[in-house]
Amino acid sequence: MKEYELKYGCNPNQKPARIYMHDHSELPVEILNGRPGYINFLDALNSWQLVRELKQATGLPAATSFKHVSPTSAALGLPLSDRLKRACFVDDVPELDASPLACAYARARGTDRMCSFGDWVALSDVCDVTTAKLIKREVSDGVIAPGYDPEALELLKSKRGGKYNVVRIDPDYVPAETEHKQVFGVTFEQGRNNFRIDRELLHNLVTKNRNLPESAARDLIVSLITLKYTQSNSVCFAVDGQAIGVGAGQQSRIHCTRLAGSKADTWFLRQSDRVLNLPFRPDLGRPDRDNVIDGYINQNEEDVCAEGNWQKYFTTRPAPFTREQQRADLDLITGVSLGSDAFFPFSDNIERAHRSGVSFIAQPGGSIRDDAVIDVCDRYGMVMAFTGMRLFHH
Fold first, then answer.
1. Ramachandran region of residue 308, left (φ > 0), alpha (ψ -120 to 50) or beta?
2. Is 394 a catalytic residue?
3. Whether residue 235 has pLDDT greater than 90
4. Considering 68, 136, 255, 393, which one is annotated as catalytic?
5. Which residue is catalytic, options 55, 67, 228, 354?
6. Any idea which architecture 195-269+330-386 has in CATH?
7. What is the 8-class DSSP label of residue 368?
8. For residues 363-375, average pLDDT
9. Is the dihedral of CA 146, 149, 152, 153 positive or negative?
10. What is the bridge-based pairing of β-strands 119-123 and 140-145?
């Protein structure tokens, strides 16, 4: 297939629309089911690069959940604790532990379930049946992978009334070294960002504390590779082999850090006893439970515990999760890793990171205020590496 006609571009008024190879060669993708759109393919091709790099860097299967050309999370195929399984709504899948790929997907999809609603999924490995079963029961637009087990493919084809988008990509495809795109009729050209992110990137430790455990180095690598495919400015919190908070597309670095930190906080608090034991009505669906949990933790649009509201969601009225109680839980957390796609211009980012349990940081360095940033890291006993490499992505 040398070209594929799309229904429309980013918006319904943007026609005609298609994807094709600039050199008129065969496309490296095969549509096995559905009819992916313009944004679907943007998500698919960006997300595939992310999981491919994670697999290359760590040797572990990887998965990511993408929305609007940025990851909501990315994760490696590590086992989930019983508490995390409950928080990710996968504690009813006894075969989960036997599939590292399914574990990666469960982590990626379960991290930020609000933002993952209607996502695009990328898998580093051939999709097995367990992973397909997990994908089938979530609200999602499509999936890209290097292949699918026959039974897994049939499960995915039955999703969304037979219209679910399933794409296979050639795992051996290597793009040209130079890439192009057009904006307002003007063609841009640049070399592809083939910069390799691995353990060697973390050797320049600039803080007094230079104790960087291998688990933290792994998490920093997860964070940095995730940032490589996140719309800039961007910051990513990671722990236990997964991205737990992504702040994407913010004009201010501190707003990136605040956004990513608040998502990381929500991920931690989802695993608290107060949230895990919420007395949901049995007829409340998974997406509605996600909305209620977010409201219960973040106390935003609706007080879900208020009289007249709680009856819609719970069998009994739960006690509110107060800010003081949440802060007490979050103050116990340490060992979180944080990556930034560009230098921190002010030390306020480190102060905010500390509030979400960050102990390890990787950033390019190069700010005129690097000394102030290092001083705050030293005050909290953090380890920070200067990578010397910016990771902007647009």
1. left
2. yes
3. yes
4. 68
5. 67
6. 3-Layer(aba) Sandwich (3.40)
7. T
8. 96
9. positive
10. parallel
- CATH code that applies to domain 3-174: 3.40.140.20
Distance CA 105, CA 189 (A): 34
Task: Locate CATH 3.40.140.20 in the chain.
Answer: 3-174, 195-269+330-386
Catalytic residue among 2, 22, 24, 394: 394
Examine the residue annotation and report whether 24 is marked as an active-site residue of this protein.
Answer: no
The pLDDT of residue 173? 96
DSSP 143: E
User: Is 180 assigned a catalytic role?
Assistant: no
d(CA 368, CA 348): 15
Q: What does the pLDDT read at residue 300?
A: 87
Closest Cα to residue 313, out of 354, 290, 284? Answer: 284
The mean pLDDT of 377-388, rounded to a whole number, is 98
Is 0.70 surpassed by the pTM of this model? yes
Cα–Cα distance, 14 to 345 (Å, whole number): 39
To the query of whether residue 68 is one of the catalytic residues in this protein, the response is yes
Q: Which of 40, 233, 291, 349 is catalytic?
A: 233
User: Cα separations (Å) of 106 from 22, 85, 147, 246, 360?
Assistant: 36, 8, 19, 17, 25
Reference 111, options 17, 292, 244; nearest CA is 244
Handedness of CA 324, 325, 327, 331 (dihedral sign): positive
Segment 43-61 mean pLDDT: 97
Interaxial angle between packed helices 100-111 and 129-136, expressed in degrees from 0 to 180 and rounded to the nearest 10: 20
Q: Is the CB of residue 245 less than 8 Å from the CB of residue 263? A: yes
